[in-house]
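Researcher: Good morning. I'm working through a list of sequences from a screen, and I'd like to move beyond sequence-only analysis. For each chain I'm collecting a predicted structure so we can compare shapes side by side. This is the next one on the list. No need for commentary yet; just the structure.
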Amino acid sequence: MTNVIKNSIPNTVTCLNLFSGCIACVMAFEAKYELALLFIALSSIFDFFDGLLARALNAHSIIGKDLDSLADDVSFGVAPSLIVFSLFKEMYYPANMEFIAPYLPYLAFLISVFSALRLAKFNNDTRQTSSFVGLPVPANALFWGSLVAGAHDFLISDNCHPVYLLILVCLFSGLLVSEIPMFSLKFKNLSWNDNKISFIFLIICILIVLAVNFMESILIFLKTVQQNRGVEIVRDPVTGRMVLRRKYADASGSPFAGFKAMGRPCKYGTIAIAVLIFFSLIASAAGVQLFNASRYRDLITVTEGDFASDVAELGMSQIPVVDKDTASRLGSKKLGEMTDLVSQFEIQENYTQINYKGTPYRVTPLRYADPIKWLYNQKKGLPAYIAVNMVDQNTDLVWLSSGMKYSTSEYFFRNIHRYIRFCYPTRMFETVSFEIDDDGNPYWVAPTIAYRIGWWNGKDIDGAILVNAETGESKWYAKADVPQWIDQLYDSNLIMEQLDDNGRFQNGYLNSIFGQRGVRRTTYGYNYLAIDDDVWLYTGMSSVTSDESNIGFVLVNLRTKETKFYTVPGATELAAMDSARGQVQHLNYSATFPLLLNISGRPAYFISLKDAAGLVKMYAFVDVAQYQIVGTGQTIDEAKRNYRETLGQEEIEDPTAKEPAASETVSGTVEAIENVVVSGNTYYYFTLTDDRTDSVYTAAITVSERLPFVQADDSVSFECVENGSTKEVITWR
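Model: Good morning. Structure tokens for this chain:
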């Protein structure tokens, strides 16, 4: 019952956000702009606290995330649209625009459309965890509410053209989905050091609001002070503003000569903000990919590698079989055996993959079950962490002598994010991960960020902050000096982004959009390999025109960023997973994401097959180059033996086979070329200009990795044989 109430608190606050947003919509319809702004502000307050409460209570849920997006689109998308819609209805339209006056207000709903796009983009963008890319919807809503409520008289006068407002609507709609980095007012905690910029911004805003709202009282005070100095404070009968004037009039005789409007500080402040926004836009433009394609390409250096020599063949006792989901199940089972711990602690679902004493492990710390449990146990700290051997599935609860005093589940200054920020206030750091050193001591690793392009573009890693989880002792290391036991200095998503940029901009920015010659991309997903006591990220590489085939794959050392590309045309990881499932389709098993292994000098995918309960039941080996070659078994040894047998059968010469047809060498210019996917393999069909035989040539993707980049008018040379109505390419020259 307690958990139900706890989990419902953030959603209740989100519902209050939605309720307040609906009232704001009604107020906007009735042109009560001040009240609409008030309820939008209330919605923003509720939006602030629902996330904060969810993190504090550890009450995250998929329903809560979807509900938050729905509430935000109503409160910060529909409500400001209705405010602008009502304003358009009130505006002065020149005679030449009267014919569109009934229709122009509906363009205000562009704000709603782009707000929804912004929210959908935010929910699926891993970059926006600690900052925003593009204008946040609450800020956009508050801008429109403040603008209309504060400058209503001017906006409906004949001095404001409706086109100006339309341009402003289009500009801010574009900013919502733009790639301009912006700081976030989303607080993960209430630490000053973690949220310094946000706090300063809010304080300044509050001071400005107070100054504006209490200006009249301030002026009355000044009147008292200045009453004997030849200055008086009066209200301008035309504008209604409080102004200063000398007690004597000038030669013109005007009673309001010598006015000094008190809005000058606000005017200068607005100009200063505009200048800052202008320079921030310039700084952002300086780092865009259009002007820096080669610099984005060079953020990661890719060299050619030899798979057979770089990746040693593993014995049966060395193949890791535990993925993150299985590790989570094993860890939960282990903790469940400790009844005294279950009531106080939970497992934090990090499960960082590391190499520990030459063996791949997944490790994760414990966390406090709730704030009350933290209050009872925080003095001693977290007593242990979970270590799962990925080879033999042995799961250990590793007890600590003094307990972890610094973790992500702490609430005050021992919270690891707050602690690092306090110790290193000038450093920007990436996602903090949990690792252990060679002696099993727990550490928090915070990679520090360096921007290589412009002011805040081209994100890279220049070092790491290491914090002993028990003592809090910390030290920053440059990238070259990072201890070797650290396995994941680079975030996997950052590496994938840099690999995509490297493949996209091989021949410049324009080529990445139009010609796309030599352009390649990463395939779906990634996995990890343990090589020489380091963790290497593995992912396939495909051409932008290929759907089901890889042109090779990449290995990246997550500590040094050493990157090697291996030219091995073959099926994608997803195609291999489908092939493995096809072998046991009657059992309805699911397949894990493949692990790349060296089997008999050939790259092969290793896949675990799970039942509906998530338990591993079988294993499969799938050949990378020929994914129809599959070996499955109840054990790894059986699966590997069946794979080798199938591989051997494919390579055995058939004595009944006919004499192979004579080959011929052909050269010419490509007239037209198309690709099709047959049973997961990509084939290219093309014709040649001035070919007297009018032959159609066909080539499998396995013939050459250059095939995806061949286009019309390219000169080609190859060796082919007759194959029915077509000529099959066997060698690409």
